[in-house]
Amino acid sequence: MAPAPTLPAEAQHPTPAGAVAFVRYYVDLYNNAFTSFDTQYLRAVSDSRCTFCASVMKNVGDVESKGRRVEGGALVVQAAVASPGEATDGLIVAARIDQEAGRTVDSSGNVATVIAAQANMAMDTAVRWDGRWVFLDAHLKNSR
């Protein structure tokens, strides 16, 4: 099992740059959850009302409960920018995301699903500083 990503120093500040660093960290946690089946780190930084977060955690649980593993399919942040504003009021971080090709494999080694590579997806996220960054929600729009 891969160790959980470490929160970067820049993501520990209530600034637009800190918000961007936090969203990049969240994407790292997302990728880690699908390979480790450990969602505790995502849960720790997610708002309890985050529908995107709940969907991710459900999907991770579904893959694990079916006895499958994920190979590849990682999300990669290519660029991100935060809106100006007060971090305690919340900021929007707009990101361009690529997804690597991947697949889910069952316990017998058979490919269960194929994850197509996608480039230039739009991911709009909402985050808020509450003594630390909290991931409020996101919308990921496929490039197709």
Strand content: 35-45%
Q: Number of helix segments?
A: 3
- Give the integer mean of the pLDDT values: 95
Strand order of the largest sheet: 2-3-6-7
* Poorly predicted tracts of residues: none
| Biggest beta sheet attributes | 4 strands, antiparallel
Query: What's the gyration radius in Å?
Result: 15 Å
Listing every helix as H and every strand as E from the N terminus to the C terminus, the arrangement reads: HHHEEEEEEE
Strand segment tally: 7
Question: Could you walk me through the main structural features you see in this protein, from its secondary elements to its overall organization?
Answer:
- A hairpin with an 8-residue loop joins strand 2 (75-82) and strand 3.
- With 144 residues, the protein is α+β, with helices and mostly antiparallel strands.
- The protein has helices spanning 16-36, 40-45, 51-65, and strands at residues 69-72, 75-82, 91-99, 102-105, 111-115, 118-129, 133-141.
- The model has no long low-confidence stretch (mean pLDDT 95).
- The protein is globular, with a radius of gyration of 15 Å.
- The protein has a domain at 10-67 and 80-95 and 122-139.
- The protein contains 3 helices and 7 strands.
Keywords summarizing the entry:
3-stranded antiparallel sheet, 35% strand, 4-stranded antiparallel sheet, 144 residues, 7 strands, 3 helices, alpha+beta
